[in-house]
């Protein structure tokens, strides 16, 4: 059986979790506590870069969410989550990449610093501008289509749909993007989306933790670097 090492709130793990559900695949969820469990030797043996998700399929393990999604699409092609024509495929890939490379960094910045009185306002405004710019691009790309690839739900929805509906919670209302808003509301009615949904308590807890987790990660990485340095010195 497939095994997915994940954390419920993780923006990288949730699309993989959702894809497994949309493909109706049997799998086991193995939670990883991101307050430090990802730095333990057992998990580092699965992913030396200490982050989720990790997919294990028999003797093969895959890291990085986009690589996992591609693996699932080829290894378990039905139902398909990728179009085959060039134009639609390019649209799906654009949505995936701008979501992870533009929208997600803005979301993380807003999560970590939105309520911090000491944060420079210019940095927060840049994060808001970056998020709005991405949403405007996606609004135009979606156009009047039901999904980004027309009538087919794809990895574009799997990746972008797990982030965009949260934007109002971060001070960016979707009413300014009516087509995206309608698209997002439609996704949230799907049983798979409801299955991975965070409760209001989980979401509030996650937002609070995001203000301290980066410091924990930094401390753990420094400890790991020091341990590796000491190991190297002893080896010499």
Q: Which radius of gyration do the C-alpha atoms yield?
A: 19 Å
Helices and strands, in N-to-C order? Answer: EHEHEEHHHHHHHH
Biggest sheet details:
4 strands, mixed
Helix content: 55-70%
Q: How many E strands?
A: 4
Give the amount of beta strand, in percent: 5-15%
What is the total domain count? 2
Explain what the structure shows.
With 236 residues, the chain is α+β, with helices and mostly antiparallel strands. The protein folds into 2 domains: 106 residues, Glutaredoxin, CATH 3.40.30; 109 residues, Glutathione S-transferase Yfyf (Class Pi), Chain A, domain 2. Helices cover 58% and strands 8% of the residues. It is built from 10 helices and 4 strands, in the order βαβαββαααααααα. Strands 2-1-3-4 form a 4-stranded mixed β-sheet, with helices on one face. A hairpin with a 2-residue loop joins β3 and β4. α1 runs parallel beside α3. The chain is globular, with a radius of gyration of 19 Å. The protein starts with a strand and ends with a helix. The model has no long low-confidence stretch (mean pLDDT 90).
Brief overview:
58% of the residues lie in helices and 8% in strands. With 236 residues, the protein is an alpha+beta fold.
């Amino acid at each position: 059986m497939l095994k997915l090492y994940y954390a419920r709130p993780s923006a990288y793990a949730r699309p993989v979790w959702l894809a497994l559900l949309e493909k109706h695949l049997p799998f086991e969820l193995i939670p990883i506590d991101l307050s430090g469990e990802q730095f333990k030797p057992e998990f580092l043996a699965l992913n030396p870069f200490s982050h989720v998700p990790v997919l294990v399929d028999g003797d093969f393990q895959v890291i990085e969410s986009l690589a996992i999604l591609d693996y699932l699409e080829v290894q378990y092609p039905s139902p398909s989550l990728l179009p085959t024509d060039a134009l639609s495929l390019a649209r799906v890939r654009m949505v995936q990449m701008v979501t992870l490379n533009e929208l997600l960094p803005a979301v993380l910045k807003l999560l970590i610093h939105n309520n911090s009185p000491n944060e420079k306002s210019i940095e927060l405004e840049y994060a808001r501008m970056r998020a709005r710019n991405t949403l405007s691009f996606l609004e135009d790309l979606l156009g009047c289509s039901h999904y980004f690839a027309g009538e087919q739900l794809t990895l574009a929805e799997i990746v972008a749909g797990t982030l965009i509906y949260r934007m109002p919670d971060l001070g960016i209302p979707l009413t300014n993007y009516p087509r995206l808003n309608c698209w997002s509301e439609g996704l949230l009615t799907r049983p798979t989306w409801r299955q991975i949904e965070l409760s209001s308590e989980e979401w509030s807890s996650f937002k609070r933790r995001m203000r301290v987790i980066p410091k924990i990660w930094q401390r753990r990485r420094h400890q790991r670097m020091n341990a590796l340095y000491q190991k190297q010195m002893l080896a010499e």
